[in-house]
Design goal:
about 40% helix; about 280 residues; alpha/beta; 11 helices
Amino acid sequence: MRVVRRRPTTAFVLSGGASLGAVQVGMLEALYERGIAPDLIVGTSAGALNGAFIASRPQTVETVDELGELWRGLRRGRVFPVDPLVGLLGFLGTRDHLVPDRGLRRIVKAQLDVDSLEEMPIPLHVIATDVLTGEEVRLSEGRVLEAVMASAAIPGVLPAVDWDGRMLIDGGVANNAPISHAIELGASRVYVLPTGYACDLEEPPRSALGMLVHATSLLTQHQLRADAIDLAEACELVVLPPPCPLAVAPFDFSQAKTLIDRALEDTRAFLDRRDAPMPRAA
């Protein structure tokens, strides 16, 4: 009797990291150069934005080039526009956030090719956190825009998102690198694309928003290490190396080109050192 060997189900897990999400562009380019593409994508925060972009488009280097153009054009003022009134109300406790979400919402909406998660050519699953229970919430159906906004709602910085009566915030609070979700969804090979953290800053962030985002990135990086150890036996797990040392704060969007170029070079070298899997069949 002939034995039919199934091709492993490959998942890309894209973590959060605010402006450091540009790192994933270089990683994706190196993967696509080698014919490594996902059967499904799980994303959190900035990784949810990147995931939504590539899941709705051809799995090619050209698609990653387009994503790179997006990141190179971002600036902090576009993503986190300062509104003195919103900031004051947040400080006084009458709002749950310091920055309006209109900038990020406009950016995300302009990049979406489909309206709902169900329409994605590559299945996309977005991770958010329930404000009241602290539970991880995997969003696999519904509006892509609201799912990405919920996953990227940095607590205290951006407003929580109402999802069918549940108030949701940044998925990185509960699970910044949702490897476990990829395994639950049937992945036997998981590529984790972490954004890393600013491990080589010369001084702490000076602004309150900068400190909030930086502190969150430190917390989630430690969580990723623990999860990678716990789940290493559950699948073929490949954790791509983020740039290190890194002196770019996760609130600085002006260094996207540098981050992309470094990640591309580092990921190429990493994949060359290991036995890369066979390219995905066309």
